[in-house]
Amino acid sequence: MVKLSVIYYSATGHGTAMARIVAEAGEKAGAEVRFRPVAETRDPQSFADNPAWSANYEDTKDLPSATGDDIVWADAVIFGSPTRFGSPAAPFRTFIDTLGGLWAQGKLADKVYAGFTSSQTAHGGQETTLINLYVTLMHFGGIIVPPGYTNELKFADGNPYGVSHITGPDNQNPVNDATNAALEHLAQRVVTTAARLAG
Ligand SMILES: Cc1cc2nc3c(=O)[nH]c(=O)nc-3n(C[C@H](O)[C@H](O)[C@H](O)COP(=O)(O)O)c2cc1C
């Protein structure tokens, strides 16, 4: 059975919704799944005036947070982070920066990886965020499995680099059907590829 870790950071909850879709689709594809939010690095008081951020924090704070072991354990990892200034968010990078020891031992290599992101605007850096993530995965020696346009549905969500959601001017757009389908497709593709590599 393929082991899939879904490791993501989310402040205002879009990433959490996306990660849940990925995890469920991974299970449907036959994987054993670890669902792991990256721990919030900010004091909750600092975002107490942001209801979406506070709600997501309350919703996820008691779940086990991502650790390096969740990558070592897995055959496949799907990462998620919001786009911030065209790159993955700092808390996500803080988690990545804990992985030096495992990287030095070669324990992050030879696994299947892919990613998803969200941003407020369509051209606000979704592709650069994913490419940024994938540069790191190259350093891991990871096997990056982008979705490309390998299914008709990718022409609806339109992102061959990974999956991305546009949260909108008020940062309140829920995940739409096209993105939902693209997340399910990504999870299925990653699990299937990992199973093939395992022989
Ligand atoms: C510091 C900061 C920087 C951001 N930079 C961008 C950006 O470059 N482009 C963009 O479209 N949205 C940007 N956003 C909006 C976030 O991408 C959006 O709120 C996020 O995708 C929501 O994901 P989450 O609900 O999982 O936290 C930024 C938000 C913050 C807080």
Describe this structure in words.
The protein is globular and about 50 Å long. Strands 1, 2, 3, 4, 5, 6 and 7 form a 7-stranded mixed β-sheet that branches. With 199 residues, it is of the alpha/beta class. The model has no long low-confidence stretch (mean pLDDT 98). Helix content is 42%, strand content 19%. Belongs to the WrbA family. It comes from Mycolicibacterium flavescens. This is NAD(P)H:quinone oxidoreductase, type IV.
Which SSEs are present, and which pair or pack?
Blueprint: E1 3-8, H1 14-28, E2 32-37, H2 51-60, H3 69-73, E3 76-84, E4 87-88, H4 90-96, H5 100-104, E5 112-119, H6 126-140, E6 143-144, H7 154-157, E7 163-166, H8 177-198
Parallel strand pairs: 1-2, 1-3, 3-5, 5-6, 5-7
Antiparallel strand pairs: 3-4
The structure holds flavin mononucleotide (FMN).
Q: Level of helix content?
A: 40-55%
Name the ligand types.
Answer: flavin mononucleotide
Shape: globular
Task: Describe the sheet with the most strands.
Answer: 7 strands, mixed
As residue ranges, the low-confidence spans are none
CATH topology: Rossmann fold
CATH architecture: 3-Layer(aba) Sandwich
What is the name of the CATH class?
Answer: Alpha Beta
What series of H and E elements makes up the topology? EHEHHEEHHEHEHEH
Structural class: alpha/beta
Number of strands: 7
Report the end-to-end length measured between terminal Cα atoms.
Answer: 11 Å
Name of the CATH superfamily = Flavodoxin domain
Residue fraction in strands: 15-25%
**Total helical segments:** 8
GO molecular function: FMN binding; NAD(P)H dehydrogenase (quinone) activity
Protein name: NAD(P)H:quinone oxidoreductase, type IV
Pfam families: FMN_red
Family: Belongs to the WrbA family.
